[in-house]
Design a protein that fits this description.
- This protein is an alpha/beta fold and about 300 residues long.
- Helices cover about 40% and strands about 15% of the residues.
- Strands 3-2-1-4-5-6-10 form a seven-stranded parallel beta sheet, sandwiched between helices.
- Helix 8 packs across helix 10.
- The N and C termini lie far apart (about 40 Å).
- It binds NADP nicotinamide-adenine-dinucleotide phosphate (NAP).
- NADP nicotinamide-adenine-dinucleotide phosphate (NAP) binds next to helix 1 and strand 5.
- InterPro entries: dTDP_dehydrorham_reduct, NAD(P)-bd_dom_sf, RmlD-like-bd.
- Pathway: Carbohydrate biosynthesis; dTDP-L-rhamnose biosynthesis.
- It is an enzyme of class 1 (oxidoreductase).
């Protein structure tokens, strides 16, 4: 029998990569959901339902009608500075919506895969294992941490896929990413300042989709770190991008994060240890250099 998987936020970066991946997998009956209309260019191979995750009745109705075996919950308010200035909206999208999905999962005996973030940590001691203690330093981080607790204490079958700085190309995206920003700036001959005092394990969106699929396929319970494997500063990411596209690295200058004023604080040193997803799921992400090549092939 086919496994029915429902994904939330299918218009987003991860959502789009999941639609691409899961429509290619045999044995999957895919239900894609997002706020408003489907913005994906291709509507073959899956069913689309409009679902605003902040609308409890809509969530209960759509999940009740489609009865998925697994929900992969990707939708969220992901703009960290916007979460800091619009706290009510952030809480509604990142926490209360998760409570509705938990309720719907409980009623329909659905396995819930919730996507979370390295921003639940304070960034004092990365890279982190799944067991590290959370201590968010931004409202976005607090909201995602509260959502994790709602999932963990739900009594349903659940998994949490935590990820870090996701990059990739998707259809109709307003947001850019570090690779495209560095490439465009250097091609235009612009000098850029890039920070040397933050560390991340940047994640190719295709790898994150793969990790979510491995969890869903195995219905593996618990918390899983699903990120890239290279532990890099944004400055190092910029230098690797310049190398890959053979652009002028002298335009990249080193900066300290205190140079930039942003509404939300960023954790300095996050990044993930990947021992558990490798051992339990067989997850193996690409290197950052390989990730740039995947992205470049889609330009
Ligand atoms: N991107 C990163 O660097 C990063 C890092 C760590 C963790 N994460 C986590 O990874 C997950 C996926 O992020 P992403 O990069 O794919 O983000 P994204 O591209 O911003 O996609 C998020 C999607 O959520 C949708 N959404 C927001 N509110 C909604 C609502 N009320 N109902 C239905 N859909 C709603 C958005 O819809 P619209 O398009 O209509 O606005 C958007 O398409 C999120 O849970 C995020 O917290 C991301």
């Amino acid at each position: 029998m086919k496994k029915r998987i429902l994904i939330t936020g299918s218009n987003g970066l991860l959502g789009q990569k999941l639609v691409d991946l899961l429509t290619q997998k045999p044995g999957i009956d895919l239900v894609a959901t997002a706020r408003g209309a489907n913005r994906l260019p291709n509507s073959d191979g899956y069913r689309y339902e409009s679902m605003d995750i902040t609308n409890r009745q809509q969530v209960l109705d759509v999940v009740g009608e489609t009865k998925p075996d697994v929900i992969i919950h990707t939708a969220a308010m992901t703009n960290v500075d916007q979460c800091e200035s619009e706290k009510d909206a952030c809480w509604a999208q990142n926490v209360r919506a998760v409570e509705y999905l938990v309720e719907a999962s409980r009623i329909n005996s659905t396995f819930l895969v919730h996507v979370s973030t390295d921003f639940i940590f304070d960034g004092a001691s990365g890279p982190y294992t799944e067991e590290a203690d959370a201590n968010p330093i931004s409202f976005y981080g607090w909201s995602k941490y509260a959502a994790e607790k709602a999932v963990i204490h739900s009594g349903i079958k659940w998994a949490i896929a935590r990820t870090v700085l996701v990059y990739g190309i998707a259809h109709d995206m307003s947001r850019t990413n570090i690779i495209l920003w560095v490439k465009k700036s250097l091609e235009d001959g612009k000098t850029i300042k890039v920070v040397t005092d933050q560390w991340r394990t940047p994640t190719l969106a295709e790898d994150l989709a793969l990790g979510c699929w491995l969890i869903a396929d195995q219905e593996a319970e618990g918390i899983f770190n699903i990120s890239g494997k290279d532990f890099l500063t944004p400055y190092e990411m910029a230098m690797q991008t310049a190398d890959f596209f053979q652009l002028d690295k002298s335009l990249i200058t080193q900066a300290d994060s205190s140079t930039f004023s942003q509404p939300a604080r960023r954790p300095p040193r996050t990044g993930f240890v990947l021992d558990k997803p490798r051992r339990v799921l067989g997850y193996e992400p690409k290197s950052f250099e390989e990730g740039i090549a995947v992205l470049a092939a889609q330009l």
